[in-house]
Amino acid sequence: MARVPEIPDTKAMDGDRPMSIVRRVGRERERMLGMTDEERAWRKKWLDAQKLAPEEPVMPKGYYEHMYNPIRRFYMAPMNKVQNMLEPFIGKTSAYVLRHTLTKMAMGTFAIYCIYYHLKYNRMNWTRNGGWKITVSRQKMYPDNKDLNALYKTEGKQFYVNDFDKSPI
Q1: Domain encompassing residue 122
Q2: CA-atom Rg of the chain in angstroms
Q3: Same domain, 80 and 112
Q4: For the residues of 73-125, what is the DSSP string, one character each?
Q5: Domains held by the chain: number
Q6: Which residues contact 148 (CB under 8 A, 6 or more apart)?
Q7: Are residues 120 and 79 located together in one domain of the fold?
Q8: Residue 19's pLDDT band (boundaries 50, 70, 90)?
Q9: What is the CB-side half-sphere exposure of residue 129 using CA atoms within 13 A?
Q10: pLDDT at position 89
Q11: Contacts of 95 (CB under 8 A, 6+ apart)
């Protein structure tokens, strides 16, 4: 009879515990009800265990290369340099926030320029089937306008001609 391999417990491998190690003293309201001396000692021990050593967090060798592929490392390199230069002056967190803010602003500006370029140079006209149909409406005309006759005068733009009037034909 063939032996079925055991499936490892993925919860234990991921570091998830089946129950809370904080006990009832993890909630402030529970602590306000009163704690025994044993619970106080346990809570003190638990709080001391939460403190990180000065050298933590430890980044293993090759962690950065393992987490980010070469293409991503390439395009992240300039802003990594900027962040590393800013860290001594404004702090690690502020440099991180500034780096990501500048990056997102640059990406947004680039996207806006790309959209503008596409709308400007890919407009629909009578020679193309596709593209953006961009039209400009006439001004609103009210009876009390002083220059009403000037608004009625149009120079060859009475109908939608789809740039046919600019044709060399």
Answers
A1: 67-127
A2: 34
A3: yes
A4: HHHHHHHHHHHHHHHHHH-HHHHHHHHHHHHHHHHHHHHHHHHHHHHHHSB--
A5: 2
A6: 141
A7: yes
A8: low
A9: 0
A10: 93
A11: 83, 84, 86, 87
56-65, 81-90, 119-128, 140-149: least confidently modelled range? 140-149
Domain assignment present for 108: yes
CB 135 within 8 Å of CB 142? no
If one compares 132 and 116, the residue with the highest pLDDT of the two is: 116
Mean pLDDT for 57-66 is 87
CA distances to 25, 72, 95, 98 from 82, rounded to whole Å, are 44, 16, 8, 10
State yes or no: pLDDT of 20 exceeds 70.
Answer: no
What H or E segment, with its residue span, contains residue 67? helix 63-67
**Domain contains 141:** no
Does some domain include residue 145? no
Strands, E assignment, 3-161? none
The reply to whether 80 and 110 lie within a common domain is yes
Whether 126 and 163 have beta carbons less than 8 Å apart is answered as yes
Alpha carbons within 13 A on the beta-carbon side of 98: 15
Whether 158 maps to a domain, the answer reads no
